[in-house]
Specification:
five-stranded parallel beta sheet; alpha/beta; 213 residues; 13% strand
Length: 213
């Protein structure tokens, strides 16, 4: 594989059943794109692998493992020269931990309750498979984002810190519909998580207080 043309994916997780099942699924999906999927059972093993590689990596890092993990682990892997993205993956509460991991430098937070197909969907932009999603830079962003009124309402509630269930109850829609709106918001704003969405929304005056001022 030409490391200059494609990224590689490293799963660091101390649960062998989950780790190996995820590797099998991701390898099946990404191997046709020339993307290697490697695994490590702990942070030290992952660091050793990265040190011996000249490829560019996206790292899926289990948030809670013996040894180096958590927010400190994210910061360590984020500072490695050939690591482009760190993705936190955990069974911990998303609403509580997503902002923490984003602040530590993680591009994305994925729940272990997510399906493999959902994980694949979220990883594709980071691996530059869907270039239309990640190809634009800040300078190329449209001045006006194409968000519907409902999506703006969802965005406002996200900014207030509400989880999906509360947003669904408040707007009288299903949680699945909320998730669909959030995915569309992320795509339109070209972000990967709630924290990044709120930051960009504030920057571009998309929140209700900014729109009314």
């Amino acid at each position: 594989m030409d490391a200059n043309k494609s990224k590689s994916l490293l799963i660091i997780d101390d649960h062998p059943v989950y780790r190996d099942a995820l590797r099998e699924k991701l390898s099946s999906e990404f191997s046709k794109e020339g993307i290697e999927v490697a695994v490590a059972s702990n942070a030290n093993e992952g660091l050793s692998l990265l040190e011996q590689s000249s490829q560019t990596w996206v790292v899926l890092l289990d948030v809670l493992m013996p040894g180096l993990s958590g927010l400190a682990g994210i910061k360590v892997f984020k500072n490695i020269a050939n690591v482009e993205h760190v993705v936190s993956i955990s069974g911990l509460d998303v609403s509580a931990w997503e902002p923490k991991t984003a602040s530590a430098g993680a591009t994305l937070f994925l729940s272990k309750d997510s399906t493999a197909d959902f994980i694949i969907l979220k990883l594709k932009p980071l691996l530059a498979i869907d270039s239309s999603y990640v190809g634009a830079r800040e300078s190329a962003e449209p001045k006006e984002f194409r968000l519907t009124q409902r999506q703006l309402e969802v965005l406002d509630l996200i900014a207030q810190g509400h989880p999906n269930k509360i947003i669904a109850d408040y707007l009288g829609i299903s949680e699945q519909t909320v998730k669909i709106h959030i995915n569309q918001i992320f795509k339109e704003l070209r972000v990967f998580n709630r924290t990044q969405a709120v930051i960009k929304a504030q920057k571009h005056h998309l929140l209700v207080e900014a729109r009314s001022s």
